[in-house]
Amino acid sequence: MLATLLATAGPGTVTITPLNKAGLATWLEGQTPATAAWVKAVNFTAEAGSTAFLPGEGGAIARVLAGVSALDDLWGLAGLPSGLPPGNYQLDEAVDAALDRRAATRLALGWALGSYRFGRYKASEKAFANLVWPKHADQGEVQRTATATTLLRDLVNTPANDLGPAELAAAAAALASEFEAGLDVIVGDGLLDRDYPAIHAVGRASPRAPRLIDLRWGNPTHPKVTIVGKGVCFDSGGLDIKPSSGMLLMKKDMGGAAHALALGRMVMMAGLPVRLRVLIPAVENVISGNAFKPMDVLKTRKGLTVEVGNTDAEGRLILCDALAEADSEKPALLIDFATLTGAARVALGPDLPALFANDDALANDLLAAGEEQSDPLWRLPLWAPYRKGLDSKVADLNNVTSNGMAGAITAGLFLQEFVSKDTPWAHLDTFAWNSGARPGRPEGGEALGLRAAYAVIAKRFG
Description:
single chain, 462 residues, alpha/beta, Leucine Aminopeptidase, subunit E, domain 1, Aminopeptidase, 2 domains, nine-stranded mixed beta sheet, six-stranded mixed beta sheet, Leucine_aapep/pepB, metalloaminopeptidase activity, hydrolase
């Protein structure tokens, strides 16, 4: 259940009238001169994100006018749970009746996403405002998306002292228990016994043992959908150590794993007819006497050897073993999420995950879903001529290029080496973080690419 969305209105429930600029004039025509004068006096023009309170008897709030860009704007009401006085609210009856399923669902989802607060370490005394469910909202869709986003945000926001590889595995175990999924976790030297040498190499320096988390759910005869998530629970850079400014946010370097678990939750909660597999290589990239070193040559599950050009390009090293295992089953769809490169952020900023795909139809579906879900992606090319930059004189390939250019593309090209050409595969290089707060999107961990990916899976296999 979502605590800030209510089944029914009760005594004292206040009406919210969402209005865009074009609709304000029409609405005012049907109001009393006193109401029109009040709206003018408080300078309410229905600017998106603005509000005006209409006074009632005894100083109570009679109605809230909420400015929106459009009535189906996902973020249109998302600032109100924290912006309104605590209490119960409902949509204007006429507006609510006129909203179609999509618009009603988006407004409700925005409200739910705007009701998030990370309160593990610091309590807040202020309560959120509650909204009566819009009549035509798809409550199941809102529940799926909001609970998955909460899981993702909570995981990314949790600091590394409380979220290491074992705790990430525990989160997967809780999810498996809730949905009666199978779970296999390979820990420490067991990774060598079962041929995941690159994951082991990256994570062996930490006293918190590396592991591969492997969740399976659904009918084995259904189409295979596999999700891989980078689970670097903290990234110091290894022996190629980051500066303090570059290390500051590295608790979020498991953001890909958080996306994978959240997407898995949505698939299972919807009961989609797929054979779901979630693979998460979980490590800490830290320094000790047995840390992997620059110019080491690592074996991988696929059999390729990799020269380590930089220990701070560790995410692709753990992903390559997981992707090779995922690809071995020839899934109908393979998607990986990773907070992989700073180059993607330089190119696209924090809000646009970089999308790479070996299948144009898949890429186009993800881009279209991103637009539909207000969860945009931007495709970058797997530009084959840049692959030669990953050549090594002593191994099958290097984990970085020597010139530092096109870093997001060359990272994608590295991963492509571990996926068959006939496996439809998409790689999302995501930031997983809001650097500042906006309506419905508080500062901290964030789902970027989650809703788009789920929409594609649901459309293809639902």
